[in-house]
Amino acid sequence: GAEERCQRLESRAEAAEKEVEVTRRQVEEFRQRVKDLKLELSSLSQHVDRKTAELASVMIERDELSYKLEAANEKLSSATEQMGILKAAVAQESSQRQLLTLQHHGLREECDRLQSTVEKLDQINTENMLAEKRV
């Protein structure tokens, strides 16, 4: 009776101790896993911080490049506008030159006609003077 009960209690106590030991090991494993996960989380957090800093730096660089591009576009627009003005001025100068060339040709023709007329009149005058001397 009593000895059997004693042995049964001892068996149950041993079984309970084994369960406690298994549970202790599981708790220790969980503690280790929590510790490992905390380290991993810390590492990931640092990685996120680094990437955030990189992103901020890249965004600053992008803004600077965007500003430079805008400035370059303004300069290009201005240069294009000035080229248009110069082309118009060159075209105007060219048409004025053509007009002056035409006027020059016209004046030359007029001069040639006048020269020819003067020569004819001179010849007629000479002929008249000769005719008068004969008379």
From TrEMBL:
Region (Disordered): 1-21
SUPFAM superfamilies named among the record's database cross-references: Myosin rod fragments
Top-rank taxon: Eukaryota
Protein's recorded name: Uncharacterized protein
